[in-house]
Design goal:
Number of helices: 1
CATH class: Mainly Beta
Structural class: mainly beta
Strand content: 35-45%
Shape: globular
CATH architecture: Roll
Distance between the termini: 18 Å
CATH superfamily: SH3 Domains
Radius of gyration: 12 Å
Largest sheet: 4 strands, antiparallel
Number of strands: 7
Strand order of the largest sheet: 3-2-6-5
Order of helices and strands: EEEEEEHE
Amino acid sequence: MIQLQGLYRLRQATAAIDRSGAADLCFQVPEGATLLVPGVPRDGPLVEVRSAGRPLLMFAEDLVQRAQPVAGSRWYH
């Protein structure tokens, strides 16, 4: 299992599932978006993230391939 935690910036637009509404909606998070990954353990390929205050689910592998840690943030590791 991949363990991600911290603040990341997307290098490429990536699909996500929006969990903020009554129904889950799939959409593209744009390149350059900042994501907070709280590191909540989760079974399966999806991880919980927040972008602009919205709770999202994204594939962990997409984050590994398309995001980079934000240096200088208190979440950087």
